[in-house]
Amino acid sequence: MTTTAVGLNIYDLTGSTFMVSLVAWFALLPMVVAGLYGGAIADRFDRRAVALVASLVGWGSTVTLATMAWGGLTTVWVFYVVTTVNAVASTIASATRQAITPRLLPTELLPKAAALSGISMGFMVTAGPAVAGLLVAHVGYAWTYTVDVLLFFAGFLGLWTLPDIRPDGDRAPVGGFRSVREGLSHLRASPNVRMSFVVDIIAMTFGQPIVLFPAIGAVLIGGGAVTVGVLTASYAVGGILSSLVSGRLTDLRRQGIAIRNAIVVYGLGILGLGLVLAVVTLGGHEVVSRDFADVNGPALVGAALSLAVAGGADNVSAIFRTTILQAAVPDHLRGRTQGVFTVVVTGGPRLGQMFAGTLATLTATWVPPVVGGVLVVVLVIVAVARVRSFHDYDALHPQP
Fold this sequence. Notes:
The chain is an all-alpha fold. About 80% of the residues lie in helices and about 0% in strands.
């Protein structure tokens, strides 16, 4: 909810897609630092406690946004500061939670756990943006942020019920840089884990069009905030559906090939979105209206279906990338490796927002998903072909 609302809020204040994309620019470097050092913290201390503290900071940033909205504060740079704090806290909390999962389940159940996580994530990013779009359109930003402040307590409850989870084996060194360096050294010697990061960076850098949604809803297919909610939710619905039918899928042994194929389909889905937008733009069918009654219905359906395909494929890729990371990395290094993974999965989309927002500003809204979709397909096929161990990765014999 907050992610969607902040994008809409900044677009309302500035009318600029580029200004929306600056949320990603300002948060990127702090997120990288948080992922590296947050993972080291998770390998040193009780992971339950680390996740709780990080979540508390994230909750505080949402409280700040609600306070700003109720007080009528519209200074754009403050939004950048608060969302950066939120991104840092989320990075540390996410890395720590992912490092907890393999301590609760046997290895053979990790793909199924990842699929269940895909369902919960899908519902989160389906209901959140959809509700955010409706609330922003009908009751404003202050109530939207406030609702999310209250819903945040569910996260605290889930973490509170866990047992203490301290790292097995040698704990991370006390010195922060030494600890990070040890984790990065392990990553350099782990080609399969490293390649799982590389292909995701490719997909997210060139195939992440969410920063374009406010402009699509305002001046391309119409519908305003509700259209933004529909498009964001469509991506998540694809993820939910792919998890719901993933029972047999999670038993696949050739997980490297599964990741490659899933990301290729993802690229084709993003390309499909770009082609829909190109037809609207080049055909002169733009709808400059934020009233959902005026929306270009066929274009909205085409865009939503393309995003559903992309979301489903991205979730399949995430299931196997998460499984490789959790199964192949020893526990005492898992927090640091998960920290890098979290930087990739949260920083990658921000690179994508930079790419899409900047390219759209220089050209047209439809250009980033068309160019990006093609690049994703080509680059991922080439990258996987060059690393044979990833291409041949066997889930029964996990190797980092």
